[in-house]
Every structure is written in C-alpha cells, then in structure tokens.
Design goal:
The structure holds two protein chains of two kinds. Chain A contains eight helices and 20 strands. The relative contact order of chain A is 0.11. Chain B is mainly α. The mean pLDDT of chain B is about 90. The chains are: A alpha+beta, B mainly alpha. Chains A and B meet through α2 and α4 of A and α7 and α8 of B.
Chain lengths: ~375, ~280
C-alpha cells in the first residue's frame, strides 16, 4: 500500500457531542507520517475527546477521520490498527509482562516462540530485560508505563496515541520516559499524537503543537512559533504569558509610540496593532531598572519591591505597581520597599487589541 | 493485655450465643442423629439406608445443580458482558431494566409460573404452536428435570449477573479500551481481559447459587413431581411420612458434604490467587 501520498491522520470538520452537549466544534487537523503532534489545552477543552474519537472510543457526530487516506470514522476501535497509551497504564493485572506486551501479537496469530523473541527484543529496548514472567502488579509506576509503551509498540503501529501517559509518574521518571518515547519515535518513525496539559512536555516532545480551547483549535504551529507568536490572548496566557498590562499604541514619525496608562511612553520601531491594546508577557521577559530610565523599545513601569526570595542562582522579587504585583528575577540584591522600574522590552510583549467588553480583567 | 480481650468477648457474646443456639446446636444435633442408632452407638446404618433408597436421587440432584450452575454461569456472563461492552444504549438500558425482575420473585412463585408455562398445553408450547414452530402433536411437557433446571437458571441468573455486572463495571475501563485498541474483538475482550479480572466475583456468585439450588424444596416438588427427584424432596418425605429424622439427617449430611466440596474448590482457588499475586 502506498502511504506516502496521504497524511497519516487527516481530521476533517470533526464534530463530537456528548448527548446534546457539543464537545468538538469542527476540528481540522492534518498530521504527516512520522510527525509528533502534541495537543495542549486545559481540562475540558476537548483534547482527550479528540484523541478518543481518533482511537474510536467516542463516536463522531459529523466529519471524517482519514488514516492514510482511509476513512475510519465509523470503524470500531479494533479495526483501526493504532496503539494507545493511557494515563492509568491500563495494564492487564491478570497477565505477566510477557502476556501484556505479547497480547497484540497473539491477536495477530503469531506463534508463541516468535512472540517470546519479539517481546524480549522490545523489553531490551525499554531496559526491562528479564522481567517477562513478572506480574505487572509487582512493578513500579515507571516500569508499568514502560511495559504499556512496549505493549503499544509490539504491534509496530504506524500511529501511536498518548493520552497523558506521563502525568501519573514522578518528575524524574517523567522526564526520563519523555526522552525515551521521543528517541524511540525518531528511531521507529511512527506518527504520534500526544495529549497533555503540561506545556513543557508538549514543547520538548512535539514537532508541532496544537493548542485547543473550548472544543476548537486555537493555534497550530511549531513549539517556537506558538511560544513566540501566540495567535490569541488565550494561547499567549496558556503558553505562560499570564501577566497583562493595558497599553496604547499610536503611529509616530519613526515607528510607533507606546504609552502606559500613567502617561509614560516609549518609541518603538515595531509595528502591528494600533489603538488600545493589552500586552501579555511572561515573568522572565521583565527585568529591573532605574525607575526614571528612558530606554527606546522598552517601557518602564515605576513600582516598589514588596517581596524578595532566593530560589537559587538569582533573586526573585515581587514588584508592586499601583495595586498590581509582578514577579521578576534579578541577579543583584535589593532592599525591600525600594523604588524600582519594571522594564518590559516591547519586542517580547504579545499585543492584542483590548476587547471593549465590560468586566474585562487585567489581572 | 487480658482486659481488652475480655471486654471484646463480652461485646461479641450475644452474637456468639445466637450462633450457638440457633445454628451450631441444631447442626450438631442433626450430625449426631445422622451417625447414631437409637441405642446410642455410632453407626452408618442411616447412610446405608439413604444410599440404598436414594442413590439415584443424589446423582440426579448433583446433575441438576451442576448443570444449572453451568448454565447460570454462561447466561450471566453473556448478560453482564453485554451490559459492560454493549454499544447500543437503548438495548443496554432495557436489558438492565429487565434482567433483575426474577430476583424479587420467590422460588415457589417461580415454580408455580413454570408449571403453567412449561406444561404440555402450557403457554410456551401453545405459543410455539401458534407461531407454527411446532405441530400440536409434537408438544411435550417440560415438567421434568428440564423444568427444574429452567426454573433454577431463571431464578439464579439475575443474582449472579447483578454481582458480575457490578464487578465488571468497577474494573478500569482503560484496560478494556487497551484491548480493543490493540485489535481484540469485544468477545475476546470479554473472555481474555474482562472475565479474568472478575473470576473471584463469578465464583462467589456461583458457589452461593449452587448451595441455594441444592437446598430448594418447592421447585423440584412443584415442577417435577415424579421420580427421580431431588434430595430435599426425599428429606421432606422421610420426615413427613415416616417421622424418620435419622435418614433425613443422613441425606442432610450428604448435602453438607456436596456444599462443602464446592466451598473447598472456591477456597482453594482463593489461596492459589493469593500465592500467585
């Protein structure tokens, strides 16, 4: 079968409802063969529903799912030929490691001896050699999820679905398994869709990130694109730019002039939206400066230091600007209550037109 | 630390007394009566008599109860499996609504209904004739061993299904989905993934059903009056017609032995599981 002409997964105007409650409102997504896609979103955004619909556990109300050009939207899960990893590991407690990893091969009618050989090879790849006859209930969390990975990979799937498989593991094992899955994917070349609410996990593993919000795709792009150029305030704040300030952007002789509520302004040679805007920024773009400094391309917000902690390597300060508080890190030691300027480089801010809705919060 | 255990004994004393008076004493009495002759000495004459007169009925009882237990298991697995793995909501809802009804119907009422349903000119045969499946001359009465088995299965399936469906509902759904995801049909998922995780519950349900069916008097008496019949009918007959408690008690001990053997199989399975785990 010639696969190359088609995307591995092509999702076309997919609608899913739970009863009368619509969950996905027309999702379009095309995944190339061998690509690693992370679906990122807060809980309830529909990311798990999307994955379960691809796997066939959730019925679509409308739209198509094509795997290498073949529409599977009405096919039962067992006919779709994918493999999946679950948050709860979902290992079968009544079987040994061999039984679990070899089950998919047994379903495919492969001889017992060959199953043993192939399982041994997979366990070796996952550093689980010699555990074939161990009960899965006697394994640690990390080992269990490795067995689950082995079970999924044993059938040599073209598509691997990952439903938050790392979120039950402790931090160290999580990071280790993250890189193992990624390197196995590079080596074996399967297409992967990984659902997660962990931004860093999505950033480090995926070729492309899909950010979902309320049953729709908010943005698709490479990790750098989504991180540096969020397409909406939602994506910006989801990618960590959770601080906001209101600014006013006006055309000036040389570029634009950006002013803050209190009247201070800075000229900037950037361009983009005009008028009242809301700027979204991450903690790490802000820095401390002199409260009266005037720097082109940066705005300075005068405030006071109200809190200082030393998490290691640098100091972390909380700066109060009027009734708002911002966190900023700085290498130097400053006394509490000192007047400082919070410096925000305009190029690092994400500017979006301020919505005219009443009750808009700036917190 | 004698004081706490002393108080503990006082606390459980009323319960212990109840068990001793209402269970242990009659049990011991019937055991003694089964193994002694009126003069007072130990004897197996009652057993010789029981086996002499009723060995066919003992085998018949075993046959009925084992067959009913096996059929109950098969049907309960089918219903609980459909409830767990089914994908047609209205079908599951109606099955869930219907299957429990026999739970609330006493054995004697069930037996009474079966008499009119399974008779030669009963509802079942009349319906089959009306549908053209049978000719009127081909109809036969099911009021023999088949009637007993049908009544027992009809009565015990809801009980075992209730336990089994509950256990199946509480296993991790993702283990089912993982199986289907790797390519297992729903039937294979039922037998290779779901059922092995609920064997314990299935066994408990079947052991309890087995013992219940072993001790029912009304069904064999009402559904199949003729010979051979079940041991409970024989025991009632020995007592009511002859006042022969000794032989009835001997038959009772044989019943205990059969129930005990089943309990032993269940316990052995438990121990094996614990060793394996």
């Amino acid at each position: 079968m010639d696969h190359s002409a088609f995307p591995a997964i092509d999702i076309d105007r997919l609608h899913v409802s739970y009863g009368s409650q619509p969950v996905l409102h027309g999702v379009n997504l095309s995944v190339a063969a061998g690509e690693f896609i992370a679906i990122l979103g807060s809980s309830g955004c529909g990311k798990t529903t999307l994955l379960r619909t691809i796997a066939g556990f959730q019925k679509a109300t409308d739209g198509a799912i094509r795997l290498f050009g073949r529409d599977v939207v009405n096919m039962p899960p067992e006919k779709r030929g994918m493999a999946m990893m679950f948050q709860s590991y979902a290992l079968w407690p009544h079987m040994t490691v061999l039984g679990n990893v070899g089950y998919g091969l047994r379903l495919r009618g492969i001889a017992r001896d060959e199953i043993r050989q192939r399982v041994a090879a997979i366990l070796k790849m996952l550093n689980l050699s010699g555990l074939e006859d161990r009960k899965v209930t006697n394994l640690s969390g990390g080992q269990r999820q490795r067995v689950a990975l082995g079970r999924a990979l044993a059938i040599e799937p073209e598509i691997l679905l990952l439903d938050e498989p790392l979120s039950n593991l402790d931090a160290k094992v999580r990071i280790q398994l993250r890189s193992e899955i990624k390197s196995l994917q590079n080596r074996l070349g399967f297409t992967a869709i990984h659902v997660t609410h962990d931004r860093e996990e999505a950033m480090t593993m995926a070729d492309r990130i899909v950010v979902m919000d309320a049953g729709r795709i908010a943005q698709i792009g490479s990790p750098k694109e989504v991180f540096d150029h969020p397409s909406s305030p939602f994506v910006a704040s989801f990618m960590g730019a959770e601080n906001t300030i209101a600014l006013d952007v006006r055309p000036a002789a040389d570029g634009v002039e950006v002013s803050v509520e209190n009247g201070r302004s800075a000229s900037w040679n950037g361009s983009g939206v005009m008028g009242p805007v809301t700027a979204y920024f991450r903690d790490d773009v802000a820095s401390l400066d002199d409260p009266d400094a005037l720097i082109d391309g940066s705005i300075i917000l005068p405030g006071r230091i109200t809190q200082r902690t030393y998490p290691g390597g640098h100091y972390r300060y909380v700066v109060a600007i009027k009734d708002r508080h911002f966190t900023v890190t700085d290498d130097r030691y400053h006394e509490l209550d000192r007047a400082v300027g919070l410096r925000l480089p305009l190029a690092s801010l994400h500017l979006f037109p301020t919505l005219e809705t009443p009750g808009e919060t700036h917190a | 630390m004698t004081r706490p255990s002393f108080f503990g004994l006082i606390l459980i004393a009323p319960a212990l007394a109840m068990i001793a008076a209402l269970f242990l004493y009659p049990l011991g009495f019937s055991l003694v009566s089964a193994f002694t002759v009126p003069g007072g000495g130990f004897s197996l004459t009652h057993f010789e008599k029981a086996i002499d007169l009723y060995s066919t009925d003992i085998l018949f009882t075993l046959f009925i109860v084992i067959l009913s237990t096996l059929l109950t298991a098969a049907i309960s697995i089918a219903i609980a499996g459909a409830l767990t793995l089914g994908e047609t909501p209205w079908l599951i809802a109606s099955l869930r609504f219907l299957y429990r009804w026999p739970l609330f119907i006493p054995f004697i009422v069930a037996a009474q209904c079966m008499r009119t349903f399974l008779a030669k000119n009963g509802l079942m045969n009349n319906s089959l004739v009306a549908m053209g499946v049978l000719e009127p001359l081909q109809t036969t009465s099911f009021l023999d061993w088949r009637g007993i088995v049908i009544t027992f299965v009809w009565k015990q399936v809801p009980f075992v299904t209730l336990m089994l469906a509950g256990a199946m509902a509480s296993i991790d759904r993702a283990t089912i989905e993982a199986g289907r995801n790797l390519g297992a049909s729903r039937l294979r998922v039922l037998f290779e993934i779901v059922l092995p995780q609920v064997t314990q519950t299935l066994l408990v349900g079947l052991v309890l059903s087995f013992v219940t069916m072993l001790s029912v008097l009304s069904v064999p008496m009402m559904v199949a009056g003729s010979q051979p019949t079940m041991m409970t009918v024989d025991m009632a007959f020995r007592i009511n017609s002859y006042g022969d408690y000794a032989t009835a008690n001997a038959l009772g001990v044989i019943s205990y032995a059969i129930a005990g053997a089943v309990a032993w199989i269940y316990l052995r399975h438990n121990v094996k599981r614990e060793v394996g785990a």
